[in-house]
Amino acid sequence: MPNKGMLVVLSGPSGSGKDTVLSEIFCKAPELKKSVSMTTRKPREGEIDGVDYIFVDESVFTDAVSDGKMLEYARYGGNYYGTPKERVDSWLSEGLTVILKIDVQGGENIRRLYPDAVSIFITPPSMSVLEKRLRRRGSEAEEEVRKRLAIALDELKSISDYDYMVINDSLEDAVDDVITIIKAEQLKVTRRKNYLSEVIENV
Amino acid sequence: MPNKGMLVVLSGPSGSGKDTVLSEIFCKAPELKKSVSMTTRKPREGEIDGVDYIFVDESVFTDAVSDGKMLEYARYGGNYYGTPKERVDSWLSEGLTVILKIDVQGGENIRRLYPDAVSIFITPPSMSVLEKRLRRRGSEAEEEVRKRLAIALDELKSISDYDYMVINDSLEDAVDDVITIIKAEQLKVTRRKNYLSEVIENV
Predict the structure, then answer these.
(1) What φ, ψ does residue B174 adopt, rounded to 5°?
(2) Domain residue spans in chain A?
(3) N or C: which end of chain A has fewer CB within 10 A?
């Protein structure tokens, strides 16, 4: 029988670099499962259905919500985004580790539904670095940068609801930190339900 | 101001290989501090006072106990063994990570005194491997081997009181596991009391 699966909730403000950290993690540790969000927004160039998002019509999305098939969902800029429950639960029942990238509000819901979930907050090394990163994108108007900084500051106040904090100063270190956390959590006695039988066998 | 120091309690039955694991850990991660036990037993050949043990007379030991200077102590085979409190507390107040090798009974005391302590149980991969290891030492009489196996089995029942379980099958993996656990614990939000100021600075 496998050990219990493990759900890892990963959050962080815009500009924390959590997407880059995540892509690196799935390269380095392909045994980790990535929960793919469902959305009603149209695919952008290069985005692959089922990999980047599950792209669906609004009626499919709202049906999934009313059928209780979504772990959480939210509406941004006229589009729905959410986490389908089925695949996550099926991976967990196989004893696998599933990573869920989610915003701070969604994170709260998930922790309520999965009290054993491990939660990691990725932060930029400082607000001034975050500001530089947001400006470097170039595409953002001054007002947008200000707005994102205010949101980031607000989200940072939720760090205390998370189990772990990873400061994304060097990408490589941040990726190693997240993988280290996952490995350590897998060594927790509470996650190794067969721990005694592993050792004792037929005494 | 440094983050809070961290106390790591490491236990495991005789034959689990915890001493070898520990020596490797201090080689690989010299920033970790080793709590040195005090004992009234005579030094064995090659043992260095202050490194392997603090060797003292019985009167010094019992005075330390009655002065409240010991975190825990026990008597085995006519000799006292115990953990002096002062150095551990001073390292912790400097924000350092201190590793304490201790038996299962001592571990309970320490967890009561330091509820934030991280506890790791090192086990042999199986009882049959443990038996082989104990016999391989050669020096142990059959009766002694039986006695140690019975004690080990009893100690294994305490695993559920520990936070983490490391199976010492390959020495290298076991050492990596312990270092991984320590690194991950250092990333816990509760251990990074300055977490917000680290990031937010002068907003």
Answers:
(1) -65, -40
(2) 6-35+96-200
(3) N
What are A34-78's pLDDT values in tens digits?
A: 999 999 999 999 999 998 899 999 999 999 999 999 999 988 889
Contacts of B159 in chain A (CB under 8 A): 189, 195-196
Structure-block tokens of residue B200: 């937010």
Q: Which of B125, B159, B195 sits opposite A189 (nearest CB)?
A: B159
Domain B36-95 has CATH 3.90.190.20: no
Taking an 8 Å Cβ-Cβ cutoff, which residues of chain B contact chain A?
121, 123-128, 153, 156-157, 159-160, 162-167, 177, 180-181, 183-185, 187-189, 192, 195-196, 198-201, 203
pLDDT tens, residue by residue, A18-31: 989 999 999 999 99
pLDDT tens digits, one per residue of B139-150: 668 888 888 888
Q: Give A64-84 as a DSSP string.
A: HHHTT-EEEEEEETTEEEEEE
When CB atoms are compared, the residue of B164, B192, B200 closest to A189 is B164
The partner residue sitting opposite B199, judged by closest CB among A127, A196, A198, is A127
User: Tokens 């759900």 appear where?
Assistant: A7
Least confident of A86-100, A126-140, B69-83, B164-178: A126-140
Give B-chain residues touching A180 at CB under 8 angstroms. Answer: 180, 183-184, 187
pLDDT value for B1: 47
Could you tell me which residues are beta bridge partners of residue B72? B83
CA dihedral A135, A126, A159, A157 (to 10 degrees): -70
Q: Do A167 and B201 touch (CB under 8 A)?
A: no
Reported ipTM: 0.88
The yes-or-no verdict on residue B203 having pLDDT over 70 is no
Which CATH number among 3.30.470.20, 3.40.50.300, 3.40.250.10, 3.40.50.1100 corresponds to the domain B1-32+97-192?
Answer: 3.40.50.300
pTM here is: 0.89
Answer yes or no: CATH 3.40.50.300 is held by domain A6-35+96-200. yes
